[in-house]
């Protein structure tokens, strides 16, 4: 979309953009939240399963170690590691380690020292650093309840988990603990699951973006048509019905606007009919009065003072006749017959017509050279009428010795600027300048620019008023390009 200077909403503030971004953010947030939740939930459940496995392996180790022999194992020293009892106990733990796939199994006393360990680097009586950092967990096991430490990372960067089970004698006394350590390999699976979810979510996000684009386009396209229609309505074009149908809220809005348009069009017809009727009622007696004034002016017996008064009456009659003609032109339906015409040829014709009038007012009428070949799609009669009116207004706005300048250029559309170095017009007047019967001149009906505006709209053109570089007013006529001939 174009910027606000063209009367359109900047794309960053458009409803389509906001709806698209909102749906995209919602889809992305849902995908990200779902992937994080699933990963955490899967990790929690897998960690619980790992804890249960560690406790089960620990329970099996307790059975293999024979709890009644454990107090004797806790009295071993490094010098006694060759004894058969110790070797049998360690061998049983190694076999269990291989069968279950855990990383380490050890028997520790209640002070946190390992006595039988599958880790070959751990000697009898080695202090377990893990228990120092998780003393509360160890105390819980010492009280007779299996427990486990949270996931931790060892010095090699491996994520692990250790579970503990108590070793009870026949009397029920807890004399030691068995620890089972395993790698948290499930985290890799959880991360893979998250990656897959994000992949599926990304595909879903793309689909959501496509859906959001179609939804936003379907919602805003009727609104864009309404904007174009409303702009034409605001410029005075009441002939086109509202281009929106449907049973939704936009359709109801379109129906309401169409009812408003029909009502305004009816009022406009009544106004034009009234204006035409008044003009005809004035025109008939005006013709008779003018005839008698002409006859009176031709009377040779008139004194000079009387002749001056008669000439003043005749001038006022001519001015009144022009106003009546404007009334009739405003009331008369205009049916354009646009065709491809040479803009330069029309401008030269109009300047030829308006040149004597400019000379009589000692005003310089300048034509700044533009593209030599500049076809426009416009009704020839309407274009001449529009340019004559705009140039005529410029001639009336400047003082003797002033300048009226005509320039044109061809871009996406053809633009003609009629500028003057007069006093210009205020912002308040600029807002009402195209209203029928509004005028700041001492004479005139205030219908010239409304007629020009209507002719421009009928030819799919646009008339704008602004400030000229010359210091006065700039009237810009934007027209559709024609076919080169």
TrEMBL record:
Location of the Histidine kinase domain: 277-483
Domain HAMP: 217-269
Highest taxon above the source species: Bacteria
EC code(s) of this entry: 2.7.13.3
Regions that span the bilayer: 20-38, 197-216
GO cellular component: plasma membrane
GO molecular function: ATP binding; phosphorelay sensor kinase activity
Family annotation (InterPro entries): 2C_sensor_his_kinase, HAMP_dom, HATPase_C_sf, HATPase_dom, His_kinase_dom, HisK_dim/P_dom, HisK_dim/P_sf, Sig_transdc_His_kin-like_C
Subcellular location(s) per record: Cell membrane
Protein name: histidine kinase
Source species of the chain: Eiseniibacteriota bacterium
């Amino acid at each position: 979309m174009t910027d606000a200077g063209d009367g359109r909403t900047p794309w960053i503030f458009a409803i389509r953009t906001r709806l698209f971004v909102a749906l995209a953010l919602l889809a992305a947030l849902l995908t990200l939240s779902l992937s994080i939740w699933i990963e955490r939930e899967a990790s929690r459940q897998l960690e619980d399963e790992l804890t249960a496995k560690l406790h089960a392996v620990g329970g099996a180790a307790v059975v293999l170690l024979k709890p009644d022999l454990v107090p004797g194992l806790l009295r071993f020293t490094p010098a006694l590691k060759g004894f058969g009892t110790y070797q049998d106990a360690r061998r049983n733990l190694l076999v269990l380690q291989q069968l279950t796939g855990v990383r380490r199994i050890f028997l520790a006393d209640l002070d946190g020292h390992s006595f039988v360990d599958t880790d070959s680097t751990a000697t009898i009586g080695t202090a377990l650093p893990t228990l120092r950092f998780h003393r509360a967990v160890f105390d819980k096991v010492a009280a007779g309840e299996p427990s486990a430490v949270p996931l931790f990372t060892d010095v090699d960067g491996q994520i692990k988990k250790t579970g503990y089970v108590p070793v009870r004698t026949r009397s029920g006394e807890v004399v030691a603990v068995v620890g089972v350590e395993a790698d948290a390999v499930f985290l890799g699976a959880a991360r893979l699951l998250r990656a897959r979810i994000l992949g599926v979510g990304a595909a879903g996000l793309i689909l959501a973006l496509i859906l959001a684009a179609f939804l936003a386009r379907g919602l805003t396209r009727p609104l864009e048509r309404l904007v174009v229609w409303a702009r034409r309505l605001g410029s005075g074009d009441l002939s086109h019905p509202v281009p929106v149908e449907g049973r939704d809220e936009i359709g109801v809005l379109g129906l309401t606007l169409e009812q408003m348009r029909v009502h305004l069009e009816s009022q406009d017809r009544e106004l034009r009919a009234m204006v035409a009727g008044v003009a005809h009622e004035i025109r008939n007696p005006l013709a008779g009065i003018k005839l008698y004034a002409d006859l009176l002016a031709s009377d040779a017996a008139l004194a000079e003072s009387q002749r001056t008064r008669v000439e003043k009456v005749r001038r006022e009659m001519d001015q009144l006749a022009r106003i009546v003609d404007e009334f009739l032109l405003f009331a008369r339906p205009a049916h354009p017959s646009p065709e491809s015409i040479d803009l330069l040829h029309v401008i030269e014709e109009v300047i030829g017509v308006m040149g004597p009038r400019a000379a009589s007012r000692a005003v310089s009428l300048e034509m700044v050279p533009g593209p030599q070949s500049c076809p426009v799609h416009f009704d020839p009669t309407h274009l001449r009428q529009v340019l004559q009116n705009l140039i005529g207004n410029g001639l009336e706005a400047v003082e003797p010795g002033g300048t009226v300048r005509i320039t044109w250029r061809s871009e996406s559309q053809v633009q003609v600027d009629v500028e003057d170095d007069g006093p210009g017009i205020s912002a308040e007047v600029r807002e009402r300048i195209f209203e029928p019967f509004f005028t700041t001149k001492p004479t005139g009906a205030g219908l010239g620019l409304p007629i020009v505006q209507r002719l421009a709209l009928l030819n799919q053109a646009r008339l704008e008023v602004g400030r000229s570089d010359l210091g006065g007013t700039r009237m810009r006529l934007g027209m559709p390009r024609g076919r080169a001939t």
